[in-house]
Amino acid sequence: MYNSRGKWFLAVLFLLLGNSIYAQTLGSSNPNSERENNPYSKYGVGELWNGNTTALKGMGNITSAFSDPFIINSDNPASYTSLILTTFDGGGIASSRNITNASGASYNTGTASLGYINLGVPLGKKAGMALGLRPYTKCYYALADTVATPLGGTVRSYAGDGGLSYAYLGGAYKFKGLSIGFNFGYMFGNYRKFTTVADTFNPHRDYQSQFARYIRLGGINWKGGATYEVKSRDSNYTFRVGGTLTLGQNLNETVSYYKSSSYDLGGTLINDTVKADSYTDRKGKLKLPTSFSIGVLLSKTDKWAWGFDYSAINWTNFSS
212 Cβ partners below 8 Å, 6+ apart? Predict the structure, then answer.
């Protein structure tokens, strides 16, 4: 546990850092990006990021039935009834990966970002509340391939970044051994995605087309949770079962799409000719699918805990 001075210093530090910082690649074999590069984050809403606290990550992210007097478990809002002290917690996320392309070239990438900021407050002996900010997804990729055509080679490049964050306010109430809680919040973020096609077969004319998509997202998002616990007669052992549910929800989506082309005719550059089928600020909906989790946890007070979690998201119902 940090003292109060340490907590506020940590909070100010992460606010100054902003949403994210990126580490340079460790080798020169990466031709596309100097930051974390995950090609699969190109699809859907990107890579799901775990916004759990450091303590919960140390428990293997067993969150459905987890509840503790000093740890804010925003994954299951029913756990807020266990808080006995006003608690502030902040943390970061760092990751690295090694990527090998089809030709065998390998390179390392890495990134670090704000992991979460949480504030939990007990409301008497039977209730509690929490508020905070945590990441939901991240998108970061830069890749290219070469396609053979009857006239020669064509290089296709793909690049994108962005992500979604979740700001929430939640509360919970306890009825004997049953705790029920809800998080109500706002999901928001933006993405930039680019596709570039360039020919390599004409030595006298360099032709390039770019397709750019800018996406802004925002909308209400809520999550419900419940836990039920039974204690042994001497109160040394606790058995708890818990679960969460997030129904499919729609986010407001605003998309701008631009097609452009450029020519280099022997040193004469004709640039950014916007195509007629480009559009700006087209409104729509992005549907996040239903998700749920269930789990059990057996613990001995201040000694040990054993648990099991199962979670699922029905991505077949995702649409944008």
Answer: 192, 193, 194, 257, 258, 260
